[in-house]
Amino acid sequence: MSLTRRQFATASAAALAAPFVIPAAASRTAAAQTPGPAIGEAARSFPRLHSILVQRGDEMVFAEALRGPGLDRTANIKSCSKSLVALLLGIAIDRGEVPGVDARLAEVAPRLVPDDAEAEVAQITLQDLVTMRAGLGATSGREYGAWVNSRDWVSYALRRPVVGEPGGRMIYSTGSSHVLGAALAVAAGESLLDQARNRLGDPLGIEIPAWTRDPQGYYMGGNQMALTPRAMLRVAMLMRDGGVFDGRQVVSRAWVDASAEPRTQSPWSGLGYGYGWFVSDSGYLIARGYGGQVIAAHRARNLAVAITSDPAQPARSQGYFGDLMAFLDGPILEA
């Protein structure tokens, strides 16, 4: 049974205190000076966790593959892909390929909009897509299978029933991110794969393998990308450092700042949601993928974190993902 966040925090605090020097005050001092052992012991309490890297500034605090393919082999980052697509949107805006987040999908990529789509679809903006507020029925969860088995993923997503106003409540839907990715491919005249490699992979010095494409040839815009844990950490460092990596402004600071501003709230986790990134009350920017894949940055604490987990098991907000949040807010944040 998964622990609640409060239970995990209590249990991990008790477990972590034991190996250090007594009394308790000395234990806390030792843990603060050497956070690696505390992080390692907490990480080993998760049987589903594959790897974790924690970097504070330029110092690698902890890096270990407890199980799984290792730190230098690719892992499916699942819906963390959505956060990378959001970064590509910011870069496309910086390059002038799309006019801005307020641009309507029908203006940026008119050929993607089905002729028989509901009238509300004409009002959907790129901001609505990147913040999961398109107002259309979801293509995730129980609807995911029917969507990916359809003959036209973009058309299927845009033909979903209207269940809210564009720009209204958050409706988590991989189809929205996929439509955004297809729109970027149309606007830039470059596939999403090439954009990911040229605009993120090259400046970050990471490999981005080809991933799933839809029947029309558009690379999937919200799932199935693969990165090594070390590459995930570099994405976290990019967000932590205001879009800069190795002295180069890869994504504008204005876009990173805008991504960190909650525009809506997840009905499941309660986390805020900005431009493709979840925002925690404790100050993390988080990319979250099925099974417990996490790319996290804490700008105030100068932390970058990458976590991979068993991709075959769900990580619910009140289950394993909630436990990972307690881990981020506990031993990791204390680093």
From TrEMBL:
SUPFAM superfamilies membership: beta-lactamase/transpeptidase-like
Secretion signal, residue range per the UniProt entry: 1-26
PROSITE patterns assigned: TAT
Gene3D superfamilies (alphabetical): DD-peptidase/beta-lactamase superfamily
Keyword Iron listed: no
Location of the Beta-lactamase-related domain: 72-314
Pfam families recorded: Beta-lactamase
PANTHER family per UniProt: BETA-LACTAMASE-RELATED, BETA-LACTAMASE-RELATED DOMAIN-CONTAINING PROTEIN
Protein name (database record): CubicO group peptidase, beta-lactamase class C family
Species whose genome carries this gene: Thalassobaculum litoreum DSM 18839
